[in-house]
Q: What sequence folds into this?
């Protein structure tokens, strides 16, 4: 998929950055900033601390989804696949579990994921000679005895597994720098807060929040009854703990500057503090949050927690000296963006159940408008429509720009070079976040508003089915109905006949995303029968069905891809029958009929085709 990253507007190759944990709170903001700065990013995330909602938010900001791999950094084979298929310049490493309390209760989980996972990543990086790394470290590694503000050369000592693992990773990286000529910047964060200004991505912790601001905002939203404050008798200006809060957008800007600094500096290991350089107390944060939200925050004082320090904040002079970086976003603005995201995500940010993939190349204006409008008119509305422009040379998409902007569920992705249908379809699937994938072409029409509704009802009730098509009718170039096409309904009927021909109209299908994760996506080697071959693979793991209703108007287009490649399709169909001969019944009978169909003159082969279809 890296080839779809393309080139920059200036014609120079985009450098590619692998971002581990790129669907997390900090990682997602970094992905957006790096992409907007002209770099290509590849995300790997196991979604243990996030969800595909985040990818939907990234897409809404950028207009596309960067390449995403759902997986673990400890999966060495997956990492090798990513590094083999992409020219990666550097890695920004966020992926880790981050709850200090949980690390004390379940330290082995943190040793496996945070430490062993990091070592697996570093091993594969070394194997592929990728030696530039930005590491997501933490202020929790500093010894509490260090004088304030905490500096990078201060003593390191953590009182919990989370911090000790961060220290161990830093020591490991120092050795890689010393003995393997790596180039590493370790950014030691203080307390990130805030959200993207769009409201599409922000901090959305799973379960009970571990950080102060998300908990405060949960109370403001009414999701939690009261805010617990652990100690109000510290030797601070108001008796509560003081911490250094850094805006998420300032924080990820430091990562971009650190990456650019790596490109200019020599080999070395450089820790850098990233914080506001000043502290705010718990009571001060509550007061600002009450002003922003216009809501009172109920509070209850509890005894101090073991290990909580009265106060700490960063010395950020080194960040300014090396990176020309300093925090710039006021804390009131940070809390405002966090609140905006909280409200927005509570009302709107739901993952669409269906992702509809519509590839297009030089479409006819009237036809693609009809296709899009047939989707938007569906009675079932929880979907996204991903339109993939395979580098069109005509002006149609510009002419219908207002239609494309009329509905926030429409996402337009433009390939920067012509990738052909199969690769484009796969990129659409990679970008999709839905539980189901639907297909429509730029010249076809869903002729009933009930199509998606009926298909979703069937698939939700029958989880063993991986693929569901519908009945259809053919139409001519002017939209006149030509004929109704009979489809087989039951799994048994379809299996008995699938070696003959496809059994499904491509633009009618609803595919379970888990089925694609299980058997794979479209295979470019079968690019003239890519749908037929995929159905065959799905059928080895899942059941088939068609709804009898005529929900698709399939346009007979004399200039379409199917007509132009009819001969190749016939030959590849024969090869498919051979490939799956052991998976489906009646191979010998069907093969005897298909061979003359492929090689005899057209009129005779059409006669044989009628026999086959019986």
A:
């Amino acid at each position: 998929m890296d080839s779809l990253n393309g080139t920059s507007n200036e014609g120079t190759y985009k450098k590619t950055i692998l971002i581990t944990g790129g669907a997390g709170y900090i990682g997602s903001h970094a992905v957006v900033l790096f992409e907007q700065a002209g770099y290509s990013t590849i995300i790997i995330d196991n979604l243990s601390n996030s969800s595909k909602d985040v990818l939907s938010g990234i897409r809404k900001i950028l207009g596309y989804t960067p390449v995403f791999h759902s997986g673990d950094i400890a999966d060495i084979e997956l990492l090798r696949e990513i590094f083999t298929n992409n020219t990666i310049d550097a890695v920004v490493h966020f992926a880790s579990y981050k709850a200090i309390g949980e690390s004390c209760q379940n330290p082995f989980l943190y040793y496996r994921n945070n430490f062993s996972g990091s070592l697996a990543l570093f091993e594969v990086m070394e194997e592929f000679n990728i030696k530039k790394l930005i590491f997501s470290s933490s202020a929790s590694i500093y010894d509490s005895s260090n004088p304030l503000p905490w500096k990078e050369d201060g003593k390191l000592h953590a009182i919990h597994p989370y911090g000790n693992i961060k220290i161990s990773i830093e020591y490991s990286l120092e050795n890689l720098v010393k003995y393997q000529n790596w180039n590493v910047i370790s950014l030691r964060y203080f307390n990130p807060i805030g959200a993207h200004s769009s409201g599409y991505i922000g901090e959305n912790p799973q379960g009970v929040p571990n950080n102060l601001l998300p908990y405060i905002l949960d109370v403001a939203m009414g999701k939690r009854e009261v805010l617990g404050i652990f100690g109000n008798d510290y030797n601070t200006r108001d008796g509560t703990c003081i911490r250094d809060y850094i805006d998420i957008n300032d924080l990820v800007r430091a990562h971009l500057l650190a990456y650019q600094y790596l490109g200019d500096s020599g080999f070395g290991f450089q820790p850098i503090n990233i914080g506001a350089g000043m502290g705010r107390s718990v009571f001060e944060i509550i007061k600002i949050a009450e002003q922003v939200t216009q809501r009172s925050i109920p509070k209850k004082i509890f005894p101090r927690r073991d290990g909580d320090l009265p106060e700490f904040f960063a010395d950020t002079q080194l960040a300014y000296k090396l990176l020309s970086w300093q925090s710039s976003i006021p804390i009131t603005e940070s809390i405002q963006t966090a609140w905006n995201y909280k409200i927005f995500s509570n009302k709107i940010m739901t993952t669409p159940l269906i992702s509809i993939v519509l590839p297009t190349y030089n479409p006819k204006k009237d036809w693609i408008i009809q296709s899009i409008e047939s989707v938007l008119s569906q009675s079932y509305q929880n979907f996204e429509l991903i339109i993939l422009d395979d580098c069109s040379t005509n002006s149609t998409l510009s002419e219908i720009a207002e239609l494309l902007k009329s509905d926030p569920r429409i996402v337009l992705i433009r390939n920067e070079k012509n990738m052909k249908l199969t690769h484009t379809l796969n990129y659409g699937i990679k970008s999709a976040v839905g539980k189901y994938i639907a297909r429509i072409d730029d010249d076809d029409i869903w002729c009933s508003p009930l199509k998606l509704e009926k298909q979703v009802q069937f698939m939700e009730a029958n989880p063993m089915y991986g693929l569901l098509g519908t009945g259809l009718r053919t139409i001519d170039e002017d939209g006149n109905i030509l004929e109704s096409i009979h489809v087989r309904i039951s799994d048994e009927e379809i299996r008995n006949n699938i070696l003959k021909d496809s059994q499904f109209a491509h633009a009618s299908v609803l595919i379970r995303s888990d089925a694609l994760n299980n058997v794979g996506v479209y295979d470019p080697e079968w690019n003239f029968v890519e749908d037929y071959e995929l159905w065959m693979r799905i059928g080895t793991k899942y059941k088939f069905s068609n709804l009898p209703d005529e929900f698709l108007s399939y346009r007979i287009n004399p200039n379409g891809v199917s007509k132009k490649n009819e001969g190749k399709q016939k030959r590849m169909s024969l090869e498919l029958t051979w490939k799956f001969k052991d998976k489906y019944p009646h191979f010998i009978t069907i093969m005897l009929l298909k061979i003359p169909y492929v090689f005899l003159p057209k009129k005779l082969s059409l006669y044989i085709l009628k026999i086959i279809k019986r």
In short: Residues 107-127 form the longest helix (21 residues). Residues 1-12 have pLDDT under 50 and may be disordered. The chain has two domains: 2-347, 354-565.
